[in-house]
Every structure is written in structure tokens, then in C-alpha cells.
Amino acid sequence: MGRLNGKVAIITGAAQGMGAEHARRFIKEGARVLITDIDAAGGNALAGDLGANAAFFQLDVTSDAGWAAAVAEAERRFGPVSALVNNAGIIGSVAKCADLSEGEFNRICAINQNSVFLGTKHVIPSMQRAGGGSIVNISSISGIVAIYGTPNVAYAASKFAVRGITKQVAIEYGKDSIRANSVHPGYIKTKMMTDALDEEGIKVASASVPIGRVGEVEDVSNLVVFLASDEAGFITGSEYIIDGGLTAL
Ligand SMILES: NC(=O)c1ccc[n+]([C@@H]2O[C@H](COP(=O)([O-])OP(=O)(O)OC[C@H]3O[C@@H](n4cnc5c(N)ncnc54)[C@H](O)[C@@H]3O)[C@@H](O)[C@H]2O)c1
User: Fold this and answer.
1) Cα(1) to centroid of ligand 1, in Å?
2) What pTM, to 2 d.p., does this model score?
3) pLDDT in tens, 82-104
4) Assigned domain for 2 exists
5) Which of 23, 27, 111, 214 has its CA at 20 to 30 Å from residue 10's CA atom?
């Protein structure tokens, strides 16, 4: 018996990286998943690999109309949505505050932060039809503390905001059995990391982590599956740091 049997999930930014692993794990655990991303080639390839319980829908998470269409598509294919993983995100330009343009600040916040508002807003009526649900918002340790290496203030601001949206949604919809929690990864080995750090940089990052390594996508999926499952039925409005001990230092 899968831990997510009967669940219908939407996962954003799921064509690669952590989102793709969440999609694989959700399917293994019995969920039906609408894989969404701006990357249609990657998303379609993954959905093709995962079989009939997966489908791809091209969604730019900054688009209000796109979200309405994605939720309608999930319902049409699989039924009311009972899990949402707001995972899509970007790091944006590496720049200190005085060097960051207003346009770049707004672009990063639109993708990392406004998207979580839009996704939640559109999914809640569907979760109410489903009789409840779980929203898992992917923030970062940059949403918990200031970190050397955070690319810019917009990344920090947007990841802190995700934590705030999560808590507010949790108290607004708890009585509808809709839970919301945020996940705060440290260094996780994905394209986002390998674009930002070379081999030497990854070694230095690994050495700085108390557990002695950077995280793998599977580490984060273990937590996301748990939060989406009924095992986490009394957990809402909480933040989960998954960083190998980095922020405990
Ligand atoms: N990798 C890390 O070390 C790390 C650490 C902390 C938090 N995070 C967060 O985890 C999440 C996933 O990161 P990842 O490392 O898997 O990144 P990734 O770059 O490998 O994947 C991100 C995905 O998001 C998609 N995307 C980008 N803009 C989009 C948009 N406007 N609409 C829809 N999809 C869009 C991309 O196409 C890509 O498939 C992000 O929110 C990121 O900020 C990552």
C-alpha cells in the first residue's frame, strides 16, 4: 500500500532537479501527478517515463491564468487536487543589494514567492472539493537565516516570504483539513547547485556541512512525501529544515 494512494498532486518545476524526484517518488507511493514546468521537453519526457499516473502540463508559475488552467487539467485527468508542491524557483543574478536592479528583484520574487500565493489560491477550492489536502512549499535555509552564498536579497526575501505565506494559509484553512508546511533545504545536488558551484566549490560546501556532504534530491523527497501523506495529518504551519546541520552551527 503506497503512502500516497488516492492522492492527486500538482508539482511545479518538476521537469528536473528536486521537483522531478518528488514526481517519481509520488508516483511510486501511489499518487497521480500533474508534472508542471516551463520546460515542456523535460516535463514531457519525465511524464512519459512515469506512465499513466503522470501527465505533463506546461505552467509558468507566475501566470494566474496558467494556474487556473493547470488546476482544471489536474481535475479533468485525475480528480480534485489533494497535494500541491510549490517547488519551482530560481536563484537569479548574483549581486549584492546595491547592484541588484528593481526588475531582477521583481522577477525573482514573482517566480519564488508570488507563485506560491497563486498556486495556493487556485488549488484551495479543489482541495475543499477533495475534502482536504497538503500544501508543501519549498523555501530554503535562506528563508530561515541570512547565509553567505545566498545569491541576492530577492532570493532571501522571497524564501522568507514563502515561510510566511505557509503559516498564514495553515491557520486560514486548518478547519478545512488543508495543511501547509514549508521545507528549507540547504545545499542539494541539482543543476541549480552545479550551475552555481564547480567541483571545488561543492567540496568546500560539503566540508562546511556537519553531516559532511551536500544533500541528494532523495533526501528532500523523503520529507516531501511524508508531509504530503496522511502520516503528517496533525502537522501544519511548520517549517522543516533539511540541511545536514548547516544552520545548527
Ligand atoms: N539546489 C539547492 O541547493 C536548493 C537549496 C535550497 C532551496 N532550493 C529550492 O528548491 C527548489 C528546486 O530547486 P532545484 O535545485 O531542483 O532547481 P532546478 O534549477 O534544478 O529546477 C528548477 C525547475 O524550476 C523550473 N522553473 C523555473 N522557472 C519557472 C517558472 N517560471 N515556472 C515554472 N517552472 C519554472 C525550471 O524549468 C526547473 O525545471 C527551488 O525553489 C529552489 O529555490 C534549492
Assistant:
1) 30
2) 0.98
3) 999 999 999 999 999 999 999 99
4) no
5) 214
Q: In this structure, is residue 1 part of a structural domain? A: no
Please give the grid coordinates belonging to residue 165. Answer: 505565506
Q: Is 155 a catalytic residue?
A: yes
Cell (9 digits) for 35: 508534472
Confirm or reject: Cβ of 110 under 6 Å from ligand 1. Answer: no
Q: Is the CB of 187 under 6 A from ligand 1?
A: yes
- CB of 16 sitting under 6 A from ligand 1: yes
Count of residues making up the chain? 249
CATH number at residue 69: 3.40.50.720
Residues 6+ apart with CB under 8 A from 114: 62
| Neighbouring residues of 107: CB distance < 8 A, sequence distance ≥ 6 | 92
Instruction: State the CB neighbour count (10 A cutoff) for residue 222.
Output: 13
Please tell me the distance between residue 183's alpha carbon and the centre of ligand 1 in angstroms: 13
What pLDDT, in 10s, does the model give residues 123-145? 999 999 999 999 999 999 999 99
pLDDT in tens, 172-224: 999 999 999 999 999 999 998 998 889 999 999 999 999 999 999 999 999 99
Distance from Cα 47 to the centre of ligand 1, integer Å: 18
Whole-angstrom distance, CA of residue 171 vs CA of residue 105: 29
In a domain, 149, yes or no: yes
To test the ligand 1 pocket, which listed residue (10, 21, 37) has its Cβ within 8 A of the most ligand atoms?
37
**What domain range is 197 assigned to?**
8-242
Q: Determine, yes or no, domain membership for 210.
A: yes
**Catalytically annotated residue among 148, 155, 173, 240:** 155
